[in-house]
Amino acid sequence: MKDIQKVHKASYTNRRAAIFDILLKDILDRPSVRILEIGVYLALNIRYAMEKFPSIETYMGVDDYGKFRGSPYVGPTKYWANRKESHQAYEKAKAIFDQYGQELRRETSDAFFKKVDKSQKFDVVFVDGNHKYDYALRDMKQFYELVADDGVMLVDDYDNPDTPDVTRAITAFLNEYLPTIKRIEGVRLPFINSVKVVPISLVILALHKGK
Ligand SMILES: C[S@@+](CC[C@H](N)C(=O)[O-])C[C@H]1O[C@@H](n2cnc3c(N)ncnc32)[C@H](O)[C@@H]1O
Q1: In whole angstroms, what is the distance from residue 201 CA to residue 211 CA?
Q2: Which of 60, 94, 108, 186 is 20 to 30 A from 43 in CA distance terms?
Q3: Mean pLDDT for each consecutive 10-residue tract of the chain (211 residues)?
């Protein structure tokens, strides 16, 4: 199974390049950029971004790393087999954030949103946390409030056959918020899910706020 994956992966578009070099290019050319990422996982995005774009002043991350009871991310065939593994993942990601002098908050997006000062704005908010319909839609609606007037909200997993809830949530979000969005861009990324051999794809969308 692994050999089949290897053969195909060589031709894949780089996910980080799609996000930062294509979708966020214009924003990162600004003199000072504030980024919020909801759902950080291995902290690969911050590492790529901070090494390449000196314009980034703030990169805040929020991820509960399976902390709340009954997390769908901890268990056999999930992101982490048990709580020990999820804690280790948090520690590793935290070390990366610390290295760049940035803040990683270990809490759910809802808990973070309740506390956050709503006047704090970000040029980029990347919503990539819980992929169930209600959570995905609520995250988009809540965190859109923190996007600066000329900022952008990135959403992952549109048209990913493994996450139909996210596609539905994005459609519902756009039905309501389209009048406040001036431009929508997307990059389609082919990939192979780690537990499957069939290549599939998803679209990362950039929703640019403005009229
Ligand atoms: C798909 S991964 C994020 C991938 C990352 N954005 C990237 O591009 O590499 C989803 C992450 O969201 C986190 N997550 C899931 N539900 C969450 C919630 N309600 N609040 C905060 N983080 C959550 C999971 O722990 C997991 O690390």
Answers
A1: 30
A2: 186
A3: 42 80 95 98 97 98 87 82 92 98 97 98 97 97 98 97 96 96 90 79 93 82
Going by their DSSP bridges, the two strands 122-127 and 147-158 should be labelled as parallel
Separation of 185 CA from ligand 1 center, angstroms?
22
Annotation: CATH topology of 2-209: Rossmann fold (3.40.50)
* Ligand 1 binding pocket includes 142 (Cβ within 6 Å): no
**For residues 200 and 42, what is the distance between their CA atoms, to the nearest angstrom?**
22
Cα 179 to chain centroid distance, Å, stands at: 23
Task: Give the global pTM.
Answer: 0.94
Compute the chain's Rg from CA coordinates.
17
User: What's 91's DSSP letter?
Assistant: H
Substitution site in 65, 128, 194, 203 for ligand 1 pocket (most atoms within 8 Å of beta carbon): 128
Evaluate: CB of 44 within 6 angstroms of ligand 1.
yes
- The β-bridge relationship of strands 147-158 and 200-209 is antiparallel
Q: Which residue ranges make up each domain of the chain? A: 2-209
